[in-house]
Amino acid sequence: MTRQYLGSARRRQRRIERGVVVAVLIAYLGAGWWLSAHDLIFPDAMSRVANGYYTMHSRDPHLAAIGFVWNPLPSLAVIPLLLLTPIWPALASKAVAGCLVSAVCGAVTAGLAHRLLGILGARGVVRLLLTAAFALHPLVLLGATTGASEAMFLLACLFTALHLVRWLTDPMPWHLVQAGMGAGIAYLVRYEALAAGAAMTVLVVGTTWWRERRRKGAAGMALLDGVLVAAPITAAFGLWALASKIIVGSWLETFTSQYGNSAQVGTFRVSIDGIVGTGSGAQLVYISEQLIRTAPLAVPLTILALLVAWRRREPTFLAPMFVLGSILLFQNLAFLRGMSFGWIRFQIAAVPLAVLAAGYLAASASEWSRSRWVRKGLGPALAGALVLALPLAWVTEADPRFGREEALAREVAKGRQYEIEAAVAQDIGRMGLGRGAVITDVAYSFPIVLASRNPAVFTITTDRDFEDRLSHPRSSAADYVLISAPDSAPADAVDKVYPGMWENGAGVASLIREWKDGRGLAWRLYRFNDA
Predict the structure, then answer these.
(1) DSSP for 321-344?
(2) What angle do CA 160, 164, 165 make, to 5 degrees?
(3) For 100-119, how does the pLDDT look when each residue is reduced to its tens digit (9 = 90+)?
């Protein structure tokens, strides 16, 4: 009878979890459709779609066109959908392919959060309210509806935390293998996964040693478990770096490329300091205020949960704390060291951390509190507090000082940037030019190439003969150059070879046409002069 009851309870929970996933997916797809219809598209998300697009629809399609500056999985995931762009052009031109992938990832992540809350002990309405507080948080919702990599990253992180929790309660090696695979997949999405991989390895080694400390060979067993959990992310890091070295000559393009994170942060350092302030003190205040306003309960609830876990000698909460907490710490330290833009979405790990801490505290209240009111009311109170904190997070997201990317997306939509860039693609298409006739740096012109019905007309930076054609344009029938102003395209490859191309054609080309959106962002088409 007990076994039948447990089986029935599990089936009921699985049905509820599937219902959560379906409901959240419908909500995310609807929100994504609305955002896309109003051109509220994040450039970072669209660029990931573009990287996948070049592998199939450029003049020189090849897998390495996906690039090595950013981790490959978000771009690889959209490739199957991009096969349908001849039927549904918006998959590329509006980055809908990325939105669909991120919506699915976000919905499954909500299901995993619901499952993790159950494992940590949360039940009933409290569990559903906490899941809703997670799914409706602006960082989570926008990450899942704009095509940003955060949704996929969070999915991998919660998968990792889930199997790490299971290993802490049932030390079977298979759980470690799954946790390690989750971390390896997370690295193929974002570099911050290295912090989680290191943190979980420390947790596993320490836990195994503690469990086996009275047995001979405890250190060896701890080392073995550490290797088991760290191997997948180590392999992912090594193989991706090796592929980058072989193909483009650099181990880590994000640090060495002119388009990488380091170069971009350096280029925009003045504008970042203009908003944040200069000096480590101003940066610390900014990042602290950003965290407090987006997830005000994350830090206090995590500290309380750790104290309760210590008192109960219960290690399960350590899994999400080590995985998500290490990512949050890494992101904020990277900003303080001048290595990050400090976008508000980089605080996203605090959201599930707060939700899971609340679930753990609610579940454990019956053991650490003698008060009936605390035992019965703590769960609903914590869930209600997280729900009530959502408006503050949404207001912060709308504040241009903190939600800088979001404010830029609104300005771009108001200035009709994507509409003008689509017009550029159409106008060039009407010129009836041959393959590769227009040279352009797609680090900046990717919306134009994505909107083109004939992308093969462009010679782009991912083409293997790009540098050759740029150096000898007339001999390769590359007659035109499409370029934007240096302040909006500071590392444009064309301007590096032909300084002054934007201003006056660098003495080698003549202006054919100019397009300008409502914000003043302009594109110029130059034609190389006859020799």
Answers:
(1) HHHHHHHHHHHHHHHHTT-S---G
(2) 120
(3) 999 999 999 999 999 999 99
